[in-house]
Amino acid sequence: MRPVGVGTCLVLLATAALAAxxxxxxxxxxxxxxxxxxxxxxxxxxxxxxxxxxxVDARNIDLALSRHDPPSELKTVCALIxxxxxxxxxxxxxxxxxxxxxxxxxxxxxAAAGDSCYNGAGGNRALLDRSAAERSKLAPLLATAxxxxxxxxxxxxxxxxxxxxxxxxxxxx
Length: 173
Known about the structure:
By secondary structure, the chain is mainly alpha-helical.
């Protein structure tokens, strides 16, 4: 092997620097900058709405059960929380590994609650009780994730399930 000259080393370093710059320029806004700005961008892109949606879905199951809705209607609200949880899981990972873990726990719990509810909708009390236990863990899991977002960004994210505010601020509302 023959030695590499200084000129060749400089060319290789310049090429590596350009390649790194090119790769960085391809990164989305949630992949560059400070953790705070990346999480803010991620919340804006995926929306804190998933957190709010799962909370509403869980309350809708409670409401359907309290009204003694027929199994077909109960299955509809049970399937909805599962579908919404699976969609939310698809938005992971977040730019922060602890936040990802917290949200994954909440989303997995919501999906399990929906599955247990759906499978118990015909009157299987054990499955409906399991779903209730899973749903009772959901709000604290989501609150932990919201607290993590606030700690990282300095703002509480909007968990509104309505259209985003005209300002485009993911923390407004």
